[in-house]
Amino acid sequence: MLLVHCPVCGAEGDETDFHGGGQAHVRRPATHDPANVSDEAQRDYLFIRHNPRGLHFERWRCDRGCGKWFHAARDTVTMEFKAFYGITELPPRELMEVATGEWATYFKDILKAEKSP
Amino acid sequence: MKSRYSIFSLARNAMNYHKDWERAWRSPNPKPEYDAVIVGAGGHGLASAYYLAKNHGMTNIAILEKGWLGGGNTGRNTTIIRSNYLQDASIAIYELARSLYEGLSADLNYNVMFSPRGVLMLCQTEHELRAFKRTAHANRLAGLDCRMVSPAEVKEIVPIINDDPGCRYPILGAYYQPRGGTGRHDAVAWGYARGADSMGVDVIQNCEVTNILRRGGEVVGLETTRGVIKTNKVGVVTAGNVSHLMQTAGVRMPIESLCLQALVSEPIKPVIDCVVMANTVHGYVSQSDKGELVIGGGTDPYNNYSQRGSFPSLEHTVTALVETFPIISRLRMLRMWGGIVDMTGDRSPIISKTEVKGLYVNCGWGTGGFKAIPGSGFVFANTIANDRPHKIAEPFGLNRFTEGRLIDESVAAAVAH
Predict the structure, then answer these.
(1) With contact defined as beta carbons under 8 Å apart, do B360 and B234 qualify?
(2) For residue B52, what are the CA distances in angstroms to A76, B35, B45, B196, B372?
(3) What is the pLDDT of residues B48-64, one digit of tens each?
């Protein structure tokens, strides 16, 4: 049983009060560059998923509370939530730094950009 | 070559108080080099190794398992075997598997207890009835022995079913595959392991692969917890753990790992002699030879590697089945467990070459892999041996996600989606 906290309305409840929405921070290629969407980019957007054994970043919805979508960082082995943050936000910096695998690759450029503004 | 199991070997060993049975398979140390290595000794991996040796004469091969043989989803599923899928590509592979199951005990000289007791898929809404009629037509065109049955006949096949037409989800009919059924999951793993071992395949347990080694876009070996093994052909068959292993070879997978739970009740006298799937309410049930009701449902809806599911999913499954079979409402449940299933976007498996030469992958069986074990191993072994996809495996390539050529079984497949 997961205990989830909504960062928007502050509601707290178990997983049946919320709805898991899968991987977070998926970028739709057509939004950024509609003229140049390769088959591979569209495949990655629709089907390829980060599937880490460990720290993962997801979307959740506050089903029986405010109804808003938000982000969560969760460990897929221990099931422990590490952070809840807004739908337009990036994860806390310390979590981006410890992310592994494909998430580490994803956050690398963002962290680099933050360091050298 | 091992001595064959038979009534005579049974009698001979009975004389000696069963003290002299030989080990069913060896426990060899890994050699430094193999012609091919299969990663993951579950049903699909063991079947792949077996058919590589048997059909393609590749006996200098190994199969590596991080835990114990058949200790993942092969030992955790609800053992349902059927082939009545909607799409032609799915029908071909699942029916190949089902038909191989029919002769498997004789082929392996190992009783896999295949029991073609019939699979009954209930229609509990008008939508579901129409959808199954469509599947029935598709299956008849493909030559499968399946048919729609009336509510009266459902009651005849499963007398304990709730046939109250006023209940929330009344039985409007069912889709019936009489040649489907169940098998003994452990025996399938053990039988394939013994068969592969007797042809010289090294079955190596407690050996986790940590890295796939490449040179110039080709596989050259594997790093394992028991040292480096050189090989030019690697077949990855690691179900829920496929993503992070393939990532060590730079291949990203369209897979999410979820937890699927199952449970068994205390043993009772025979009440149900077929498999019943109630897809609308999310539950399925059959009765084991020991008398336990074997129950399964849908996956937990978020990524999970813990092999432990959450309570709401179980409650949902049990609630559904109590509604469908009121007499089980006071049964106590003995055990529950979870397995990590590898789900693809279209709910069809992946049997594929990859952009890395010599690296093959067989995964994505999601919630319904057990039924496909013999067929999956058969075509995957062929794919590895010939370095080109077997005709039946071809539609299941990784390239289908780039080409948009999906094999959509997300509605037709079964309960758990």
Answers:
(1) yes
(2) 35, 11, 11, 9, 17
(3) 999 999 999 999 999 99
Per-residue pLDDT band for B411 (boundaries 50, 70, 90) equals: low
Q: Rounded to 5 degrees, what are φ and ψ at B242?
A: -75, -35
Is residue B225 helix, strand or coil?
Answer: coil
- Closest to B305 (Cβ–Cβ): which among A15, A20, A77? A77
**Mind telling me how many Å the CA of B102 is from chain A's nearest CA?**
35
How is chain A classified by DSSP, letter by letter? --EEE-TTT--EEEGGGSEEEEES-PPPHHHH-TT---HHHHHHHHT-----SSEEEEEEE-TTTT--EEEEEEETTT--EEEEE-TTSPPPHHHHHH--HHHHHHHHHHHHHHH--
Per-residue DSSP letters for B8-34? HHHHHHHHTTT--PPPSS--PPPPSB-
Distance CA B252, CA B245 (A): 10
Q: Which of B303, B361, B410 to mutate to test the interface with A (most CBs of A within 10 A)?
A: B303
Cross-strand bridge partners of residue B272: none
Establish, for the pair of chains A and B, how many residue pairs have beta carbons separated by less than 8 Å: 69
Q: Which of A39, A49, A58 sits opposite B255 (nearest CB)?
A: A49
Tell me which of A2, A48, A51 to substitute to probe the interface with B (most B C-beta atoms closer than 10 Å): A51
Q: CB of B152 within 8 A of CB of B174?
A: no
Distance from CA of A112 to the nearest CA of B (A): 23
For B168-250, where are the E strands, in sequence order?
173-177, 181-182, 202-204, 209-215, 218-224, 227-230, 234-236
Between CA A6 and CA B72 the distance in angstroms is: 35
Which of B256, B304, B310 is facing A49, going by the closest CB pair?
B256
DSSP annotation of B89: H
Measured between alpha carbons, how far apart are the two ends of chain B, in Å? 44
- Nearest neighbour of B310 by CB, restricted to A1, A51, A76: A1
Answer positive or negative: Cα dihedral of B235, B239, B245, B246: positive
Chain B residues touching A52 at Cβ < 8 A: 243-244
Q: Do B305 and A53 touch (CB under 8 A)?
A: yes
Task: Give the number of other Cβ atoms within 10 Å of residue B149's Cβ.
Answer: 17
Strand order from edge to edge, sheet including B227-230: B209-215, B218-224, B227-230
Distance of CA B392 to the CA centre of its chain: 17
- pTM of the entire predicted model: 0.95
Q: pLDDT, tens digit, for every residue of B287-330?
A: 999 999 999 988 999 999 999 999 999 999 999 899 999 999 99
Mutation site for B-interface testing, chosen from A23, A47, A56 by largest number of B Cβ within 10 Å = A47
A46 CB neighbours in chain B (<8 A) are 345, 401
Q: In whole angstroms, give the CA distance from residue B182 to residue B216.
A: 45
